[in-house]
């Protein structure tokens, strides 16, 4: 029995044990996040993202807005009868000018939303003012109905909701306000926007659909049908045309693919030194070389090693007189051995229109040549247009597989 004044018994790991590891044997709970830490992600949403335009574009937009509003004001003031009660200009025209000149590619800025959204919203506002006595209720109802009308008619224009409210607040001025100043103002602004945007290099009216319907044709990692499905699931109004969105996604996919391949260039994956022949080589010798090396194409070069054409197995097949009902081997032997009236040298059957690529080109540039161009072998040339290598579909697939595996392991 230990005495009362003896040291207490310590077990390994006991906090009083000198050999015990520092720190508590039990995990210490983290302190609860503060109110600021919990709300910081939400508060960060109030900080706007920068507008990625340069000073020249800012000046272009500012001048366009000023020019559009100025012409609308001058012409409307000149057109308005002297002493007439209704105003000759509406304040929402300033917001429309920002859309037309500042975001000319937006679906909300196009001619039909500008004209149709503005005019229809005024009519909706007038109807609400006439049917609903309470001004506050009529105002809210006019804005809501204006949006409800513009969306299915494909003329959603945010300043149109302001015009609906304008019509309620200015009730009693008559239905002529829809024609003047609203329609007159917007027509002047539209014509000015078309002229100014065109002269300053902006497309207006801006195409809202792709030039060709490629719903079933893959253009990258997704198709147009995939984009439609994503937009349906997103289910929100986007301030960008569908055609522009699809184009941006394809560019982003291409950039990501380029990043995956890194700085891989043709010289990194090409077969070298390349096998090539001169135009005067006999078909027998070129065929024997292709059989011996187990290749399907031979570039044809001149004395300076510049590419003149290419001979492929398909060229031999094409000239082997396939209509004759005899064995293919016999027909090929007849071709390569030569016979009166038949070609005898490589230059006679080569394809002179041959696609070449530069040795410093990115491998990514070859993908469309193989996938859409129908090429199977692409000779690679240097800065002096001399043959230095050849890239085949097998070389490209091997490079893509290696790059993808490297990206997955990174």
Account of the 3D structure:
This protein has helices at residues 35-44, 55-79, 92-102, 111-131, 135-150, 158-169, 179-199, 224-234, 242-261, 266-269, 283-293, 313-318, 328-337, 346-349, 367-371, 393-409; strands at residues 277-278, 297-301, 307-312, 357-358, 377-381, 387-392. It is mainly α and 410 residues long. It folds into 3 domains: 55-199, no CATH class; 224-261, no CATH class; 267-409, CBS-domain (Roll). The strands form 2 sheets. Strands 1-2-3 form a 3-stranded mixed β-sheet. A 3-stranded mixed β-sheet has the order 4-5-6. β5 (377-381) and β6 form a beta hairpin. α3 runs antiparallel to α6 (158-169) and α4 (111-131) packs antiparallel against α7 (179-199). Mean pLDDT is 81; it is low at 1-14 and 213-220.
How much of the sequence lies in strands comes to: 5-15%
The biggest beta sheet is recorded as: 3 strands, mixed
Please tell me the total number of domains.
3
Kindly report how far apart the N and C termini lie: 63 Å
Radius of gyration: 37 Å
Helix-strand sequence: HHHHHHHHHHEHEEHHHEHEEH
H/I helix tally: 16
Low-confidence stretches: 1-14, 213-220
Kindly state the percentage of residues in helix: 40-55%
Tell me how many strands there are: 6
Oligomerization: single chain
Major sheet: order of its strands? Answer: 1-2-3
In short:
Helices cover 50% and strands 6% of the residues. The protein is mainly α and 410 residues long.
């Amino acid at each position: 029995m230990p005495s009362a004044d003896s040291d207490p018994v310590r077990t390994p790991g006991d906090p009083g044990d000198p050999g015990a590891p520092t720190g508590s044997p039990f995990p210490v709970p983290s302190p609860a996040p503060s109110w600021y830490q919990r709300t910081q992600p939400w508060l960060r949403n109030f900080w706007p993202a920068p507008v990625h335009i340069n000073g020249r574009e800012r000046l272009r937009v500012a001048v366009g807005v000023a020019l559009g509003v100025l012409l609308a004001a001058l012409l409307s003031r000149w057109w308005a009868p002297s002493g007439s009660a209704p105003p000759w200009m509406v304040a929402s025209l300033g917001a429309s000018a920002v859309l037309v000149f500042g975001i000319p590619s937006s679906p909300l800025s196009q001619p039909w939303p500008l004209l149709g959204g503005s005019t229809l919203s005024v009519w909706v506002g007038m109807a609400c003012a006439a049917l609903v006595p309470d001004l506050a209720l009529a105002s809210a109802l006019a804005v809501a109905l204006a949006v409800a009308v513009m969306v299915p008619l494909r003329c959603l224009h945010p300043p149109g909701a302001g015009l609906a409210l304008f019509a309620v607040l200015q009730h009693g001025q008559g239905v002529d306000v829809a024609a003047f100043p609203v329609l007159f103002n917007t027509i002047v602004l539209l014509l000015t926007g078309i002229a100014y945007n065109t002269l300053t290099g902006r497309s207006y009216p801006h195409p809202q659909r792709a030039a060709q319907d490629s719903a079933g044709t893959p253009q990258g990692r997704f198709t147009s049908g995939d984009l439609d499905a994503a937009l349906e699931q997103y289910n929100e109004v986007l301030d960008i045309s569908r055609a522009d969105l699809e184009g941006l996604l394809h560019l982003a996919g291409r950039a990501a693919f380029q990043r995956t391949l890194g700085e891989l260039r043709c010289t990194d994956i090409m077969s070298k030194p390349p096998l090539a022949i001169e135009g005067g080589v006999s078909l027998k010798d070129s065929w024997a070389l292709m059989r011996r090396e187990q290749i399907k194409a031979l570039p044809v070069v001149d004395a300076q090693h510049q590419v003149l054409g290419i001979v492929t197995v398909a060229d031999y097949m094409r000239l082997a007189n396939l209509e004759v009902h005899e064995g293919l081997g016999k027909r090929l032997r007849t071709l390569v051995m030569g016979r009166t009236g038949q070609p005898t040298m490589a230059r006679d059957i080569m394809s002179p229109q041959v696609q070449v690529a530069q040795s410093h080109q990115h491998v990514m540039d070859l993908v469309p040549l193989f996938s859409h161009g129908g090429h199977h072998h692409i000779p690679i040339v240097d800065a002096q247009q001399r043959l230095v290598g050849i890239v085949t579909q097998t070389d490209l697939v091997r490079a893509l597989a290696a790059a993808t595996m490297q990206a997955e392991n990174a």
